[in-house]
Amino acid sequence: MDxxxxxxxxxxxxxxxxxxSLPEPEIFEYFSAYCVMHRDFSERTELNEVVVSGGLDTGIxxxxxFLNDIHVTTPAQVTEIASRQRVEAExxxxxxxxxxxxNAAEIGSYLQGIKxxxxxxxxxxxxxxxxxxxxxxxxxxxSVKFKSKPLLHLYYCYAGRFRDDPVATARKQAGIxxxxxxxxxxxxxxxxxxxxxxQERYQExxxxxEREIQMNEFASLPxxxxxxxxxxxLLQCKELVKLLSNSDGMLHKAIFNENVRDFLSSNPVNxxxxxxxxxxxxQSKLAALNNGITIVARDVRLVGKKFTLADYQIVNGCQTxxxxxxxxNKILDDTAVPVKIIEVEDRxxxxxxxxxxxxxxxxxxxxxxxxxxxHKKLERFLLSIDEPQDKKxxxxxxxxxxxxxxxxxxxxxxxxxxxxxxxxxxxxDPVSANDYYGVLLKKYNGKIFIxxxxxxxYLLSAKILRGIEKLCxxxxxxNLWKFRFIIALLVRRSFGGKPILSNDVAQRKYxxxxxxxxxxxxxxxxxxxxxxxxxxxxxxxxxxxxxARNAHQDRKFVSSLLIN
Length: 564
Prior knowledge:
The protein is 44% helix and 15% strand.
């Protein structure tokens, strides 16, 4: 790739995610998926689950389906979400090219692949595309639960600088109109993402952002331990929109990652806020009627009445922020909302702020899990383990907690991944491990993250799963990824029967012996290969009609596999 700046971004990204061994075009596919999925949709999206490129990819390099902002990968997840609430569906597709210019022919091939995805299918497709088509069919079977028709987002990422090409633009517009005529979508969007836009997106995903706002009415709060400075004031909503917008003028979803609550869309409280904003005579009351917004920043600089916020997040006020942004064209100049702006010295105090400010209104129970004492102890425990930096696992309870450290995403495990790992390895339910973490926390309430539990099983589960995931990267091992939870359990069992979870002495001995093998590739890789072979052999003896592609979700098959 000729662009030295984009090259430096790719190098940092590939090093962080352990992709250095892949060819440059494959790294670029992962990079593009990261910059699109994590910025515009959900930072919980696993890149190995969305990159679908390879032979017979029908011109699609990455794809994902989101229901209510949750990345779904199985029909069971679709059914579970649709059974709980009305559904907002979004389909996302990406084509990634390392070329320096737009290519109308490649755009046409890409659009043909999209049209066949939703319509008459002529081209043969690989397993990943076929599985996504089936998942799409599952989504449309729940169309009676749709709030509105789905949105379709198409991205064309490339390594050049955007120059308007009439032929490419015409091909794009024709494709949009054809897809709209399918009658399946509320709207269709097609976005060209050039090298400059990719770099902006990468910075925004990693919250390397800075915004300036003006707040005319404010007061500084007294000195508080752990907080460098804090201000309370009234911020004009038009200034707030500056903080909420990304480089494309859309809602910057990443700034809500510390918030314990996703946008709840239509509910009585949100409808009331929307009604207040919709009325020119009622808007002026917003400052008195609303609980306000809390903003935490790594750095706050104040000159006169102008605040410069760096690496900031909204930790309370997700609902208000979303509604103001959605109604930004109706906002009057003098409409304001109460805000707190806090520059923290002690990052742990963020959890206290989150808990205090969000307990004022109803929040899902799983949202507060990482704020509990067990998770604090688990975070300290994992940090205390003496291992080489490249082998170490750390627990990220706060977004970007380890951003300024030597730890990379390969070292870091989130609540979501840790829940998946423990459910697989110790609860021994690798099929359910594919579910959304909130569902798992409810299903196994009282069996996971319990005060009496030793910390060692959580470390061992994380080490096993992360070790397997490192081996799944790249097109050569793509099929291994969906079986990773089953493989994790088989590998854990290879270390012998597990001790009682509350027996810390026995768990420590068991885990240390296992971790010694995991840290040695010549020991660990054969264990993974043996698990692979066992799964392949079990699939091979199934009768006609067995769905091998979805074997990892087949409870009868998995139960039989684990018994033998």
